[in-house]
Design a protein that fits this description.
single chain; about 190 residues; seven-stranded mixed sheet; about 30% helix; globular; binds S-adenosylmethionine
Length: about 190
């Protein structure tokens, strides 16, 4: 939760990994899909970059707005503003697994992306094989609904990306958080 919320409490390792994600973002428009409490949306906004957070959770959107980011409450598979014109799309903290079908999620990202745009994903290490599961939030006071989720390890990313029309151009492990960059397959010559 500390990492998810962000702020001064996060570890130096997580700060470095977050900075690595942010380092891939330029001043071109960024869509932060499943933005959660808005660590990345707010940081990019603070840098003066155009960025929109999207999250299906009201609480997440309120937190993002509360830290100065612009965000809308929306399912990422529903209609979104400026489809086809986003230059950078973030799917951090395993969000490629939203909906339990990473290829479908990446194909949705492809619809939203401008020609030549990139998708920045945060995945699991190569030690994790791809797996599909049902998750729910559980606390002492709250029991959420089950929802489908996929975990994607670095070893599976190439095949998943290819199936969605992307190539993996960059993968780096920053203190056990794996960050990768994908570009449209027809526009890139590198696949690692
Ligand atoms: C694992 S958190 C990641 C949060 C943030 N990107 C980060 O790096 O900390 C996943 C977020 O995706 C949101 N989410 C899940 N399914 C979604 C959907 N279909 N459309 C939009 N947001 C979704 C959840 O509400 C949650 O805030």
């Amino acid at each position: 939760m500390t990492r998810w919320i962000g702020g001064p409490e996060i570890t130096p390792q997580d700060r470095l990994a977050d900075e690595h994600v942010l380092g891939h973002c330029t001043s071109r428009p960024t869509l932060d899909l499943g933005c959660g409490p808005g660590r990345f949306t707010a940081s990019l906004r603070q840098r003066g970059f155009p960025v929109l957070g999207v999250d299906s959770s009201t609480a997440a959107v309120e937190m993002t707005r509360g830290r100065g980011g612009t965000a809308i409450r929306r399912d990422l598979f529903a209609a979104l503003p400026a489809e086809g014109s986003w230059e950078q799309i973030l799917l951090t903290d395993g969000n490629i697994g939203i909906g339990g079908n990473p290829v479908r999620t990446l194909k949705r990202a492809a619809e939203l992306l401008a020609h030549g745009g990139v998708v920045i994903v945060e995945i699991e290490s190569a030690a994790i094989a791809q797996c599909h599961e049902l998750l729910r939030w559980e606390t002492e006071q709250y029991l959420g609904h089950w929802f489908p989720w996929s975990r994607v390890g670095a070893g599976s990313l190439g095949d998943i990306a290819r199936a969605a029309g992307f190539l993996v151009t960059h993968v780096v492990d920053v203190h056990a958080r794996v960050i990768a960059v994908l570009t449209g397959a027809a526009r890139s010559g590198v696949d690692r």
